[in-house]
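re: ur question from yesterday

yeah so i grabbed the chain u mentioned. its 270 aa long if i counted rite. heres the sequnce exactly as i have it in my notes:
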Amino acid sequence: MTQIIKTLTIAGSDSSGGAGIQADLKTFEEYGTYGFSALTTIVTMDPDNGWHHNVYPIDASIVAEQLKTIFAGGPVNAMKTGMLGSVEIVRVAEQAIKENLQTNVVIDPVMVCKGEDEVLNPDSAEAIRDLLLPLATVVTPNLFEAGVLSGLGKLSTLEDMKEAARLIHKLGACNVVVKGGKALGGDQAIDVFFDGAEYTVFQTAKIEPAHNHGAGCTFAAAITGGLANGLSVHEAVAKAKDFVSAAIRNGFAFNEYVGPVFHGGYRLER
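ran it thru and got these structure tokens back, copy pasting raw so excuse formatting
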């Protein structure tokens, strides 16, 4: 039997299946890896109240027990974090990474639910910046998150994205991907990759209709899968861009509020 490639997500649950640990585990499977998960939060969405999100963090001690279970088999080939929910959970993630000498760490600094525009927990955002970015092989903020982490606020141009990436790199992350996606003006979905020395701009034509619920989680999980399979960071990011674009193209309308990506899209198109 070939050696099993192991991946881990420390993230929240999205019962609609598009984002969170559901997106991560589906993506890990598409990359041919065995996925572990430590659940940090449960998110519900209310169709009777405009798809309003409710977020329920899990006790940090239970998150720690899940990680103890997972790391009983040693470090994984690559891991990611998503929605963490509280400062205590951020600290649990930090401790697990350090104690297990975990490498190939992708930090997706989730600060909001899609459709929301305020940081869920400002203290958690600061803890991610201070405790997890210095451990990150790659950090994958969207425009809002990059504006918060860099201190620049609202980002609206490619040059804004590059400057945010530079400032976030100074916080300790080895590599930074600022995701412009459909939020940046124009007809291209643009992401900026910065390795501390050079910028790479990845762009594809925007897809309409944009069934993109879960695109951010899926992108970070795809980078994780790429790293686990031995790709360089640049190669993993490039493939993840193609993977998530295919997932959006094959997405569907779940209801009047949301259209999730389809995580098997890359495989189906090939």
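noticed a couple things. The chain has nine helices and nine strands. also The chain has a mean pLDDT of 94.
anyway ttyl
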